[in-house]
Design a protein that fits this description.
By secondary structure, this protein is mostly helical. The protein is about 80% helix and about 0% strand. The chain is built from 6 helices and no strands. The chain starts with 9 loop residues before the first helix and ends with a helix. The mean pLDDT is about 85.
């Protein structure tokens, strides 16, 4: 610790200014480079649209920043309302734009962020009604509903994929039988010629 630097002295303002300039240079580059790292990794199966990754990281940054600047219990309303707003944007983006390159996984991310939004909404509800039992019942019912909805959505996706797989399998069986038939005709015509 350097005791020669006094808080908010002229030299301190100079250091703060240099740090701010460094942040201005670093932050945009780091923000825009971050999504490209997912395409560098060959082991990463789930890849998202770059604009979604940037928006998601900025949303998380807003929530963390608010947590740092509004840490007291009186500030809980501000933190929860901003968190709910960020989650609404993320859930909407997931539901409408489907940013994951594996389309079936978009339902999972939308459901996950939807569950988070529901918990935050129940926390806001608790702050207004101050009834813990009612808030927990509301949260449990909503989580159960969302879990059942997710299960139904995943079941629908699985059965659709299974039907498509069975159609492809049946089509391949027909194609193989036609190829075998043509091969047999070709062999029989060669036997007739000789």
């Amino acid at each position: 610790q350097d005791d020669s630097i006094a808080c908010f002295s002229n030299f301190h303002y100079l250091l703060m200014g240099a740090g701010f300039v460094g942040l201005l240079l670093y932050y945009p580059v780091a923000t825009l480079l971050y999504p490209s790292f997912q395409f560098e990794s060959k082991a990463l199966d789930l890849k998202f649209d770059a604009s979604y990754i940037v928006a998601l990281s900025q949303g998380k940054l807003v929530v963390v920043g608010l947590t740092v600047f509004y840490p007291t219990a009186q500030d809980t309303y501000i933190l929860l309302f901003f968190t709910a707003a960020v989650l609404i944007l993320i859930v909407g983006w997931n539901a409408i734009r489907k940013p994951c390159l594996i389309k079936e996984f978009n339902a999972v991310t939308t459901t996950g962020f939807g569950l988070c939004l529901w918990v935050v909404t129940c926390a806001i509800f608790f702050l207004f009604v101050r009834n813990q039992t009612l808030s927990f019942i509301c949260m449990g019912a909503g989580l159960l509903f969302v879990a059942l909805f997710c299960l139904a959505l995943l079941t629908k996706t699985f059965t659709k994929n299974l039907r498509n797989h069975n159609k492809k399998k049946a089509l391949m069986k027909i194609v193989r039988s036609k190829i075998d038939e043509i091969a047999m005709r070709s062999l029989s015509s060669q036997d007739d010629v000789s």
